[in-house]
Amino acid sequence: MSYNFFHFNRGDRMVLLLLSLLFLGGIFLFLFSSQGKADKLSSAQSSTTRTLLTQQECDTQPDPVIHKGTKNDTLETNDHYVGPPEPLTYKPKKRIPKGVILDLNTIDSTTLTQIPGIGPTFARRIVAYRERLGGYYTVLQLQEVYGMTQERYDEIKPYFSIASAPQPILWDTISYHAIPRHPYLNYLQRAALERILYRDGSIENWQQLKNLSEFTVEDSIRLSHYFSF
């Protein structure tokens, strides 16, 4: 009799196992739900406490002292508001006075902008053209700067002189495959120089260039300041 009471077949054991799992799950859910309610209650109490403390601090904080501004009697300031920022004051650009004469071959672009009639763009152009030339040999060459008008040239030319002349390149140091790129030498002239140097090995005098159709008397005058024998 006792054997039949405690003996369970496989199906009975599965039912008992399922009931046990359901029972344990119910206990776990009950404990978890109780803990969550306790945490929410504790959080609500902490939030209420912080709110009360903040209100008490605001009630006990003294009102800011308002005083008159020093620069404007109608401007009220306090420790948190100090008024608008100081306005920027215009500082006039430094200008070189009339009567001052500068060397066109040594002046830099910053100093050029201090001359009436020359802005940053023209200052860069004047310096860039000077570098391409190898130096100015006369103030009149400023007329060749890109964008230069007669009015602007007449305005700025009294400020310049040529105190340091360009250093010319010797013809016998030039080879036929390394003709310098110069503003006063166009493509056809460079090709003619290449042929002469390749054929003769050197250029002896200006007459040798004048005999070429690519060169004029004016060309020899311009080039004589940058090339020599």
Structure, described:
By secondary structure, this protein is mainly α. Among the domains are: 102-161, Tex RuvX-like domain-like (DNA polymerase, domain 1, Orthogonal Bundle); 168-228. Helix content is 47%, strand content 5%. It is built from 8 helices and 6 strands, in the order ααβββαααββαααβ. It has helices at residues 2-6, 10-60, 109-112, 120-133, 150-156, 187-200, 206-210, 217-223, and strands spanning 67-68, 76-77, 102-103, 160-161, 169-170, 227-228. The strands form 3 sheets. It has a two-stranded antiparallel sheet with strand order 1-2. It has a two-stranded parallel sheet with strand order 3-4. A hairpin with a 7-residue loop joins strand 1 and strand 2 (76-77). One of its GO terms (cellular component) is type II protein secretion system complex. Residues 70-79 have a biased composition (Basic and acidic residues). It comes from Porphyromonas circumdentaria. Residues 60-86 are annotated as: Disordered.
Note the main sheet: 2 strands, antiparallel
Number of helices: 8
Given the C-alpha coordinates, what overall shape results? elongated
How many strands appear in the DSSP assignment?
A: 6
Percent of residues in beta strands: 5-15%
Region (Disordered): 60-86
GO biological process, one term: protein secretion by the type II secretion system
Protein name: Helix-hairpin-helix motif-containing protein
InterPro entries: Endo/Exo/Phosphatase_dom_1, RuvA_2-like
